[in-house]
Amino acid sequence: MRRWSSGSREVEFHAKPLKPHSRGAGGCPFAYAPAELADTVIWRPELTAVTVILDAAPDGFGNAKAVDPLKLGALLADQAGVEGRHVVVADRDGAHSLWLRDPTPGQPLAAIIPLDKDFTTRVTSLLRFHRRLFGKQSGPPARGWPLTRYRQARLAMMLQALDLRMSGASYRQIAAAMGREDDAELPATEWKTSAGRSFAIRLVRDATALMNGDYRKLLRIR
Q1: How much of the chain exceeds pLDDT 90, in percent?
Q2: Which residues touch 56 (CB under 8 Å, ≥6 apart)?
Q3: Measured distance CA(55)–CA(84) in Å, rounded
Q4: Which of 70, 117, 118, 128 could bond to 49 as cystine, CB 3.0-4.6 Å?
Q5: What is the 3-state secondary structure (H, E, C) of the chain?
Q6: For the segment 72-85, what is each residue's pLDDT rounded down to a tens digit?
Q7: Mean pLDDT of the chain
Q8: Which distant-in-sequence residues (6+ apart) come within 8 Å of 136 by Cβ?
Q9: Using a CB cutoff of 8 Å and minimum separation of 24, what contacts does 99-105 make?
Q10: What are 13-35's pLDDT values in tens digits?
Q11: What pTM did the predictor assign?
């Protein structure tokens, strides 16, 4: 039996046993205990439009600036690998995510900006870092990054709704838990066309999509 508080009352139901999750569905064991994960996660650069990509400058650009992450400020994350070095630099206006494809000390660097749909966001992020690199105030991150409080709140509701649904809750119970008690108490005929039912279904549908891979879209801004 589980209980969820909806603010004005508790919603109670008997949870059904969950089916075993396959590895493809995200049910595989954690590589690390969640509580032991670092506070700052480094996402794949091709999925994160705010990541600034830096590589060795072409021949003839010896005056291009080298980047020493340790001199940029506090590092929230620092990870080196065969593909280069990934760092996240703290900034009061918003952290900078960098991918140094050539981390050789003193190496003059150039920026790489893929000509994709995130071009504007990538340019904005690069300009912010360029200002920081030359001792100026970075300015605000690209519009929509990080997640707004509204989107964070909705994501929390989506996860709660999905948890309830996977535990056996009906859409009525989910609607009640989400603060739509009045709709949840409607007769069956009225409930079928109610805003509360539609709201609960949307939350579960969108949360299911996130669980199945759409969570990557949270890293994009457009």
Answers
A1: 55
A2: 101, 102, 104, 107, 108, 109, 110
A3: 9
A4: 118
A5: CEEEECCCCEEEECCCCCCCCCHHHCCCCCCCCHHHCCCCCCCCCCCCCCEEEEEECCCCCCCCCCCCHHHCCCEEEEEEECCEEEEEECCCCCCEEEEECCCCCCCCEEEECCCCCCHHHHHHHHHHHHHHHCCCCCCCCCCCCCCCHHHHHHHHHHHHHHHHHHCCCCHHHHHHHCCCHHHHCCCHHHHCCCHHHHHHHHHHHHHHHHHCCHHHHHHCCC
A6: 989 999 998 888 99
A7: 81
A8: none
A9: 99/45, 99/51, 99/52, 99/53, 99/54, 100/54, 100/55, 100/67, 100/69, 101/53, 101/54, 101/55, 101/56, 102/54, 102/55, 102/56, 104/56, 105/66, 105/68
A10: 544 444 444 344 444 444 444 44
A11: 0.57
Q: What is the pLDDT of residues 114-160, one digit of tens each?
A: 999 889 999 999 999 999 999 999 998 887 666 667 777 888 899 99
β-pairing, 51-56 vs 10-13, is unpaired
Rounded Cα distance, 129 and 67, in Å:
11
Residue 179 near residue 203, CB atoms below 8 Å: no
Contact 200, 164 (CB under 8 A): no
Tell me how crowded residue 69 is: count the other CB atoms within 10 A of its CB.
Answer: 17
